[in-house]
Amino acid sequence: MPRFIALLRAINVGGHTVKMDRLRQLFAELGFSNVETLIASGNVLFESAARSGPALEKKIAQHLEESLGYAVVTFIRSGAELAAVARHRPFPAAELAAEGSALYVAFLPRPPSAEAKRKLMALRSEGDDFHVRGREAFWLRHGKMSESAFSPARLEKTLGMPATLRNVTTVRKLASRCPAPPR
User: Fold this and answer.
1) Does residue 181 fall inside a structural domain?
2) What domain range is 99 assigned to?
3) pTM assigned to the model
4) Spatial contact of 106 and 152, defined as CB atoms under 8 Å apart
5) Residues 91, 171: one domain?
6) What is the pLDDT of residues 140-166, one digit of tens each?
7) 50/138 Cα distance (integer angstroms)
8) Which of 90, 101, 99, 96 is CA-nearest to residue 148?
9) At which of 83, 100, 131 does a domain end?
């Protein structure tokens, strides 16, 4: 059965707290199997016979809102899609290895328009650099995120769509839990 990853936006912020065992239960209620979570920030791995990411996003988001009482924007990636994101190297290794640098991946519902990409690239600075590939935007931060004029909210506003960010280390851990399908 195909393995998927649900990346939930803001599941445990704004006064809302969902324990990971409860989150796993909510996914199991939808008929998914081998449900597991990674870090208490809305990363859920599961197996489903479904093939459509958008249909899964809608089904999960609806169930979470009905069960939790608030909207939870949901982004789905297949194991193969997440592995491709984890392998992608949007910046030179030296920049990634520089003292104080961190790489974040923003998961998006669809590829941004050319105009949205242009607006994002216009925000590059000494401390912030960006790269867009498909339904992901990569943010390389040199220094503390809290010291940047850029933020996840500004990313959403600039691209004109919701997003959820993960550190590339988390993305790689999630991808490592999704074995490649047999050939």
Assistant:
1) no
2) 87-176
3) 0.93
4) yes
5) yes
6) 999 888 888 899 999 999 999 999 999
7) 28
8) 101
9) 83
